[in-house]
Amino acid sequence: MKDKFERAFTEQEQVRREKYKKLAHENRDPFKVTKFSRTTTIQEAIEKFSSFTKEDLLNLKQENLKIAGRIRLFREAGKKAIFANIQDQESNIQIYARQDELGDSEFEYFRDLDLGDIIGLEGTLMKTDHGELTLRVKKYTLLSKSLRPLPDKHSGIADIEEKYRRRYVDLIMNPETKKTFQARTKIIRKIQDILDNKGYMEVETPILHTINGGAAAKPFITHYNALDREFYLRIATELHLKRLIVGGFEGVYEIGRIFRNEGMDTRHNPEFTSIELYVAYEDMDFLMDLTENIFKECSLLIQEKTNIEYGGHKLELGKKWKRWHMVDAIKEITGIDFWKQMTYAEATKIAKQKGIQVEKHHLSVGHIINLFFEEFVEDKIIEPTFIYGHPKEISPLSKTNNQDSRFTDRFELFIIGREYANAFAELNNPIDQYERFVDQIKEADAGNDEATGMDIDFIEALEYGFPPTAGIGIGIDRLVMLLTNSESIKDVLLFPQMKPRS
Known about the structure:
The protein is α+β, with helices and mostly antiparallel strands. The protein has helices at residues 11-25, 42-49, 54-59, 99-102, 104-111, 160-165, 167-173, 175-197, 238-246, 284-302, 326-334, 344-353, 365-377, 430-445, 456-463, 476-484; strands at 65-76, 81-87, 92-98, 118-127, 133-144, 201-202, 208-209, 221-224, 229-233, 251-259, 271-280, 307-310, 313-316, 322-325, 385-388, 410-415, 418-425, 469-475. It has two domains: 11-150, CATH 2.40.50.140; 173-321 and 383-491, Bira Bifunctional Protein, Domain 2 (BirA Bifunctional Protein, domain 2, 2-Layer Sandwich). The chain starts with 10 loop residues before the first helix and ends in an 18-residue tail after the last helix. The model has no long low-confidence stretch (mean pLDDT 94).
């Protein structure tokens, strides 16, 4: 009976498998090699020797270098010499192999290598007549046989979906992809450095939650057999980090995976990375200043400047960012003034006149204000802008504004119509927090599957005393997209979720 995973090999795959069988039969199986001790990386060799002239290298008493990498180019120079090109993680270099130096037998094995094979090389450096730094091969070892051919060097991966499905091939073929993910790591390290230097502590909190809380989002649900109960993959790290502030830490942050059972597009993936930070005794303005600094420092690290281009727009991250109350923004764009006191019926009537669909779980004027912002304002924002003053009904964890109790001390950062951060002065009144959770339950009963659940343990934590605290969440993936000029979130996730192949 045919194995369901069995497949037909292409002609090139069959040829490579026959080559491997021959190598294994002749006791040259590359997959039995366990180690190759390099003396240098390709980049280190280039940096050390690229300034030497051809004559300098000829006269230099060189010890053999040992490098390793994947064959990317291969061409014969007559019958007795071969030029090839190999790449490792950081760079690539030309190599030159001669029959009279390797010996007849070893040279024939070398001639039989394929693009994609991984080899270890020992030799000295030279420069060609064209001035190209080249490793003259004295000895080589086949470390891994590539049984599948790489895509054509010039056309690359033709199907964009395959670029994401087979990221390992994309990384081999496209140096820019590798640079994007190296930049991602540098950005995360820079954020950690900034926060660590301020004395804040990086922590880890649970991924499995008993309560769906900390954000307005639809969760993934799983069953924990040992406890015979449902758990949620976290949609935010917020509520556990706040517990640590109650416990006496005055600055904590976590960088980690968040899971939301929602759609996929160029800006959304069901699992993504965020950083959440909570600092005791600070306010919303402090977080605005800190956010500006984080973006500026990361831009200087990756772009070496603060004026960047993204999505066809020129942005200046180094200047002071606009701070715009949500109601003022709506009034400026639409002419509708939500500073005026109005009933829910009056707000609903205005919404219908403007073509906005009010759902049954939109229970208040605050919900309608948010609908106006999302419909008419959000996509008009280009330069980095802090939108603050969100209605209380859509901000169940935010402190109420002292000047106008309809709104909260909360802001979101928008750049070119995309949200990059969400922050607020944390609600630390356990009585008010309990009532907000109750309102969220009413929204859930009315059909809002993104409403926050009741977390009694969190209420109890607040009852022990929670100092005035400022908290923020920043989307790492979108920040990386911005600073690497990446169009889709899939471009900055090593292994994004994909729809099944048809």
